[in-house]
Design goal:
- By secondary structure, the protein is of the alpha/beta class.
- The chain has two domains: 227 residues, Rossmann fold (3-Layer(aba) Sandwich); 93 residues, Tyrosyl-Transfer RNA Synthetase (Orthogonal Bundle), CATH 1.10.240.10.
- It contains 14 helices and five strands.
- Strand 1, helix 1 and strand 2 form a beta-alpha-beta unit.
- Helix 3 crosses helix 13.
- It starts with 16 loop residues before the first strand and ends in an 8-residue tail after the last helix.
- The chain binds tryptophan.
- Tryptophan binds next to strand 1, strand 2, helix 8 and strand 4.
- The site of tryptophan has 14 residues, from strand 1, strand 2, helix 8 and strand 4.
Length: 353
Amino acid sequence: MGCRHQITPKEQKVYLKRVLTGMRTTGSLHLGHYVGALKQWKEIQDTGEYECFFLLADVQALTTHADHPELLTKSVREVVLDWLSVGLDPNLPHVHFVLQSQVPERHELSVLLSMIARYKEVLRNPTLKTELRTQQDATVGFMAYPVDQAADIYMVSPQPGSESELLVPVGRDQSPHLEFANSLARRFNKKYGLVFVPCTALVGKLGRLVGIDGMTKMSKSLNNAINLSDDRKTVEESVRRMFTDPKRVRADIPGDTRNNPVFIYHRAFNADKAQVRDLGRLYRAGRVGDVEVKRKLAKALNDFLDPIRQRRLQYESVDVRGILEEGTWAARKACQPVVERVRELMHLSYPGG
Ligand code: TRP
């Protein structure tokens, strides 16, 4: 990105209520991201009560994608377009899209926090433990990512005070990281002096969306995702491939709607709630076929995605670089006083050089 452009900060106002949350930039976003995160981010943005920092975690993406760095540049653009298309709006004065790698103050904070982060505590982190199972050759960067993520959060810590708040909307799997971040911040405050406002987790109530194969998680790598940028035909095709109730080999056999991906999606995305209720009743009675239920789902999903697609078209020639420069600048401005104070308290500022 560099600093070639003149950056015009949107507003000088200092907010005491801030939101920071992020996503790793490893590819296009899908319906699972929408249900688990983006829907809630947009709602918080629209309250106008918080200064929102939405982080594109391109450094954290390297914890698993160091062999494919070329993927990152492309993914950053895709994620920005996906965010814009669901209505996150960096034109608003209180909304910033931040590119993690371009905030040097954050890297510094990460190193300094790592000095008081307990290795054993990291090893006990259940999310990290689960992820380690699929990491043949975990790097030091990977093992340290909970600390690095704490730096993401605390880089925008507002001044401590009764009005201050640092809110982190995340999926349930991220809770251990936030607990860890909080214990780190508390330890710092106690050891050196009050700098950080403990963060508050806002865990989405909708939880995780199953894949079209019914696997617990929708994910690009499992090839079971419907992307926010998929066209109508692709969505229809994915719905055709979708798993239903495996025990129901004929349409006149009463079917299960509870753990059935097709009905899970109907409940999550179909705006016509009466239709979902009716279809459910018929399905459980063995009076409607999978084909019919799927046809209605494909339509419902496409109706849901249409406004997202339209917004995406409007943004096609948007200045992604400009958006990121402004947002990243805002994060740097927020982080500078924090890291300065941390340096001071850790006896690392040397006035007079
Ligand atoms: N670990 C998060 C994920 O994989 C992404 C992330 C990076 C994040 N930094 C963050 C989330 C800070 C919340 C706060 O989804």
